[in-house]
Amino acid sequence: MFIVLPHTFLCDKLHLHTMQVLKKSLGQHFLKDENISRKIIEALKQNPFDQLLEIGPGGGALTKYLLLIDSIDFKAVEIDNDKVEFLLKTYPSLQNKIIRQNFLDMEKPFSGRFTVIGNFPYNISTQILFKILEWKDNIDFVIGMFQKEVAQRIAAKEGNKIYGVTSVLVQAFFKVEYLFEVSEKSFLPPPRVKSAVIRLSPAEQKLPMGNEKDFYILVKAAFNQRRKTLRNAVKNLFSTETLENSLFTKRAEELSVEQFAALTFKMKKDLTS
């Protein structure tokens, strides 16, 4: 979890205490660069929203900006009780706005549409994305910081060696914008990887596909054996006749999101999960 700290951190005993209770299991690092936190907030404000969920507020420096936004319903989800107590003491207006839970286990925090922001814990960032995909019909947009390699994978296009399951599933439903990168020197302690911030906006047009379940099955099967041609990787999902199409001589990384979606209309009808 990448947590932004106020600029007074080094001389503030509360923040020193927070540093002392870093939890390696949660992947905690503290973002000390206020310029980066302001850039994230600027990116957030480029789109209107009424309801906002912050994932992993941690030390609260993003939160302190979010609390200043007028006329929104704001909530934050945080699993670390030490950070929750710190946040409530430092920002009393957070009372009744913090959900003490693992994001992966929570129900939708709002009725209607909402926006998501966060410095996502890198060890579960892909799981966070898949959870967001479950809520895609209620998501206005997402601003998130990821490990740079994960952000690049989310934004990758066909023909790229890092293009994969995450790329296809996210891009099928969201427009992905790779906004900016963040140096490891911006964190305390510095992680071993660089970071990047991306924005996800709902796709302008719904991508035609047979059904979402078949789409997920197809994409995962294709990339599970990505070195094989599609004909070999997904042979159980299509009739012998369909597999004769020249498209099946390609490998998964060569197919666009649209081509994967179109193939779902040709899949066998008696598939089981």
Core attributes:
3-stranded mixed β-sheet; 2 domains; 10 helices; Helicase, Ruva Protein, domain 3; 31% helix; 273 residues; alpha/beta; disordered N terminus; Rossmann fold
Helices, strands, pairings?
Elements: E1 2-4, H1 13-20, E2 29-31, H2 34-44, E3 51-55, H3 61-66, E4 73-77, H4 81-90, E5 98-99, E6 114-119, H5 125-134, E7 139-147, H6 148-155, H7 165-171, E8 174-182, E9 187-188, E10 195-202, H8 212-224, H9 230-233, H10 257-263
Parallel strand pairs: 1-2, 3-4, 3-6, 4-5, 6-7
Antiparallel strand pairs: 2-9, 7-10, 8-10
What would you note in describing this structure?
With 273 residues, the chain is of the alpha/beta class. The chain has two domains: 2-202, 3-Layer(aba) Sandwich (Rossmann fold); 212-266, Helicase, Ruva Protein, domain 3. Helices cover 31% and strands 19% of the residues. It is built from ten helices and ten strands. The protein has a seven-stranded mixed β-sheet. It has a three-stranded mixed β-sheet with strand order 1-2-9, with helices on one face. It is elongated. The model is unreliable at 2-20 and 23-27 (pLDDT under 50).
